[in-house]
Write a structure and sequence with these properties.
Helices cover 32% and strands 25% of the residues. By secondary structure, it is of the alpha+beta class. The termini are far apart.
């Protein structure tokens, strides 16, 4: 007989099972906690940081461009840009309508941006301080502003073709802004920010490294540039010329002290100018140089020993039948010496001199002067010009080249070659960059003069100086003479090629290339006027007077007339020492009685950099005229100026 089985205690079983489940869960929790807190802690922390933080890249201030005395030619000012968060805007039509009135934009254009489903969209970038203040006061939902930098050119059109401009994203597009974009552009500043659940930045956590800004210091002299700009403006207007170019260069280093091109444009509104106006004609345009090229014919003949000083040439009384063609002189001559062929600019005499030269040796000398190849100046868009190979010369090519036809040069190329002809035969590479420096003035990179090669002998250069001095005193360049100054130079009048063949009888290029010798440093000045429309179109009549006016202006910068020994700028181990600066004047900038208003301070006596900083604080629309120290301002001191309103400051007197 079996004993009855003991009944199962299901309650105990259930309790045991539950206990086992809890025990297992506890073990799992411990293991999981261990993994979270110990073994996987670092990787999980990294994932969490990535999820809750974001890195924003804020635009950094682009480096400044300054002339050789330290005056600003380009700077970046902090301005407001307006953007929207379309997802936060409830009534987009009303918002678009109100913004259109404030920003002077079309309502449909703004509405098109607001209808975009993106989290962020630019409405208008780099607005005036006054507009930014109005947007802020309107307090529109989802419409915000951010700080950006706007490129500002205080001298507006002065040296526009040298400086060039940078675009809206702080990228150099033309001129030196393009050539030195890598130096001037600063990498965006990384800023770490905390994000909310929707990925929106809610709190800035940390800012990355400070950007390393570099400033560009130029060889340009603001005072000489001002003289050149004014003289060229008057000449182009007076002669009704299509365009004009002036280049001023240190003959002994290749440093460019001034470069002006007409027509010109305002760098602050470069987008309004056509590509033709923005083109830097000093390097991008080539033309037949005409009689200025006789300088290099004479250099070749003298250096190769093919013509003797004083040698006579019969000039056929102004008409010479040469290889089934006729060569003409504007003023007929019977017999001229070698020197007088250049002094009186005889085409017939030039052809006679060229006949003494072999085509290969003539070509080699011209190539040594740099013709037919780029100067490699630090300006973009340079054309190399034209100098045909000797094997392609026709029976007339050498004769044509002798008086500047059949070759093409750009103004900077001609200036560089002329400097070599009168400085002892040394060809230097032209340049505008003096040095790259930190904001504290520490030099990062310096551009020292680069000697490309020796072109001619010292004795040849010395003899050329005697000839070119006579060309100004007694020859075709009389209008370039400056009383009391040692001036050399050569005129040029070139007919322009006619597209239908031959040369135009109406279109000319008038030029003068010369130098001021009794100054330190010696300065070469090239003047070129394209298609002057008035009656007198020769280089001696219209380009030489421009040279004289510029020369007088440069000599007048020291405050006295030319004398036998007349250095315009001190020359020491470091060229072009600045005059001692005046005692610094401290100016307080005070806010006005209402928001967005300022009390206008007295800025007379301040230099352009100081005035620019004050105008930046007042967020006004600054307009500068002249160079040196502030002498007049409008509005006057003590007045009330609203942010975004115009402020006009005139500079003059002694430069800093």
């Amino acid at each position: 007989m079996f004993r009855d089985a003991k009944p199962i205690n299901w309650v105990a079983v259930r309790i045991a099972l539950v206990a086992m489940v809890f025990a297992a869960a506890t073990v799992l929790l411990v293991v999981r906690a261990y993994r979270l807190q110990v073994s996987d802690a670092d990787s999980l922390k990294s994932i969490a940081d990535r999820q809750r933080t974001t890195v924003l890249h804020l635009e950094a201030r682009r480096g400044m461009i300054l002339d050789r005395t330290g005056d600003q030619m380009a700077a970046s000012l902090e301005v407001d840009s307006i953007y929207a968060r379309p997802r936060r805007i409830a009534d987009k039509k009303t918002t678009a309508r109100r913004l259109a009135g404030l920003l002077e934009m079309k309502e449909e254009d703004i509405l098109g941006k607001l209808d975009d489903n993106r989290a962020f969209v630019w409405i208008q970038r780099r607005v005036s301080p006054l507009v930014a203040e109005k947007i802020k006061e309107a307090d529109l939902q989802g419409i915000l502003s951010a700080k950006e930098y706007k490129r500002f050119y205080p001298l507006k059109s002065s040296a526009a073709h040298s400086i060039g401009f940078a675009g809206i994203d702080s990228q150099g597009l033309e001129g030196l802004e393009l050539s030195y974009d890598k130096d001037l552009k600063v990498d965006p500043v990384p800023v770490t920010a905390q994000k909310d659940a929707k990925g929106r930045p809610v709190m800035f956590a940390a800012i990355g490294r400070d950007p390393k800004r570099h400033d560009l210091h130029l060889t340009l002299d603001g005072n000489i540039q001002h003289v050149v700009e004014r003289a060229l403006d008057e000449a182009v207007h007076q002669e009704k010329a299509k365009s004009g170019v002036v280049v001023v260069m240190d003959a002994d280093s290749g440093e460019i002290l001034a470069l002006a091109v007409r027509p010109t444009y305002n760098l602050n509104t470069f987008y309004r100018a056509s590509a033709d106006v923005r083109r830097n004609r000093s390097v991008a345009d080539t033309y037949e140089p005409g009689s200025t090229f006789k300088v290099f014919l004479a250099a070749a003949a003298l250096d190769l020993g093919k013509a003797a000083p004083g040698e006579k040439f019969y000039c056929h009384k102004g008409v010479y039948r040469y290889r089934n063609s006729e060569i003409h002189d504007l003023v007929p001559h019977k017999t001229l010496s070698f020197e007088d062929v250049i002094v009186h600019s005889s085409n017939i005499g030039a052809v006679k001199i060229a006949e003494k030269l072999g085509r290969d040796e003539f070509y080699r000398v011209l190539r040594r002067f740099g013709f037919g190849s780029p100067t490699e100046a630090d300006l973009p868009g340079e054309r190399r010009g034209t100098l045909p190979l000797p094997g392609r010369w026709s029976v007339l090519t050498k004769a044509n080249i002798a008086f500047g036809q059949g070759v093409a040069v750009n103004p900077l190329q001609l200036t560089t070659a002329f400097a070599a002809a009168i400085n002892g035969g040394y060809l230097y590479r032209p340049h505008l960059m003096k040095r790259i420096a930190t904001p504290l003035g520490e030099t990062v990179r310096e551009n020292r003069p680069v000697l490309v090669r020796r072109v001619i002998k010292q004795s040849t250069s010395d003899h050329l100086l005697k000839i070119l001095r006579r060309a100004v005193r007694k020859g075709t360049g009389k209008a370039a003479a400056i009383e009391g100054a040692d001036v050399v130079g050569k005129t040029g009048t070139a007919q322009k090629a006619d597209p239908s063949g031959g040369y135009s009888k109406e279109k000319y290029v008038a030029s003068f290339i010369g130098a001021l010798l009794d100054v330190k440093p010696r300065l070469v000045i090239c003047v070129m006027l394209d298609e002057p429309s008035n009656e007198h179109r020769t280089g001696g009549k219209i380009a030489a007077p421009v040279f004289r006016k510029i020369g007088q202006g440069i000599l007048g910068l020291c405050g006295s007339r030319p004398s036998k020994t007349f250095p315009i700028l001190a020359l020491a181990s470091d060229r072009y020492k600045r005059k001692p600066a005046r005692g610094e004047k401290h100016v307080n900038v005070r806010r006005g009685p209402k928001p967005g208003e300022w009390v206008v301070p007295d800025m007379t006596g301040l230099n352009m950099l100081q005035v620019l900083e004050i105008c930046g604080k007042m967020k006004c629309d600054a307009s500068f005229q002249g160079v040196g120290y502030a002498v007049r301002q409008e509005p006057r001191p003590g007045g009330i100026l609203k942010e975004g309103a115009p402020m006009r400051v005139s500079f003059g007197g002694e430069t800093s």
